[in-house]
Amino acid sequence: MRITKFGHACIRVETADTVLVVDPGGWSEPDSVDGATVVLVTHEHPDHLSVEHLRAADAPIFTIDAVAGQLAENAPDLSERVSTVAPGDRFDAGVSVTAVGELHAVIHPETQRFANSGYLIEAEGSVLYHPGDAFTPPGRDVDLLLLPVHAPWSKTSEVIDFARAVGAPKAVAVHDGLLNDTGLGLVGNLVSGMLETNGQSYQRVAPGRDIDLAG
C-alpha cells in the first residue's frame, strides 16, 4: 500500500486495485486525483471540496447529503457519480470504508454548524482514519491517524488530546495549509513531544511525499 500526503487535507491511498483520494480540495494539487478510482469528500468547505478536481478524477464520489446537494445545485454533471453515506455506514470503495460522525467542529457558537463525515479506511491489514474537520473518535483502534493540526476551529491542546484519545501508534499532520514554516515547526514540536510521552509518534510530511506506516 502507498499513502501519499497532498496539499492541506488531501490524502491518496493506493493498493493493487484501488486509488482512493480523500478531500482533494482547492488547496490540494490537481495531480492528487490522477488515476483515482474513488474519491471521498468529508464536507462542503472549499479547502476539502473542489469541483474542478472532482471533474478531473472521473471516479465515483462518496460523500454526505450536504455535499451531494451542493454538487447537484452547482455541478449537476457530477451528480450521477455521487453516492451518499450516513454515520456508521460501511461501504465498498475498492477497500472497506466506514463513515464516522456527522458534524463539523464548532468554529464559533454564532456561526453555522456544518455536516462532516470522517472515514475509516481498511486496506491491506491496516486501518487509517481521516476525521475531516472534526475531533470525532473513530470508535475502534486505528494504525494511522491523519491528524488535523491547525484550523480556525481548534487549538493545539485539542489536537493533542484528540490524538491521544484515538491512540494510533502514528499520527501524520493534515489540515496544515494555513501554517508557514515557523508555525509548522512550533505546532509539530508541541504535538510530537506530547504524543511521545503517550507512546505515540507524530510526523509532518511535505505535500507530494509518501507516508511510511512503519517509520
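[next item in queue]
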Amino acid sequence: MAKAAAKTVTLEQIGSANRRPADQQATLIGLGLNRIRKQSVLVDTPSVRGMIAKVAHIVRIVE
C-alpha cells in the first residue's frame, strides 16, 4: 500500500534576520531560509508549525 503524499507548506522570508535574537536566526536557518524573498517547501508537521510560530513576524506562508 502506498502512503498518501505528505502535506507541505511553502514559506517565504519577508523580513531581515539582522538584529534578531540568535535563536530566531537559527530557526530561520533550520527552516531553510537565509535571505529576504527566499522560499522553502517543508513537510507540514507540528515541529515545523512551531518553528513558523516562533518567526511568524519574519516569514509568510505562500498559498
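[queue empty]
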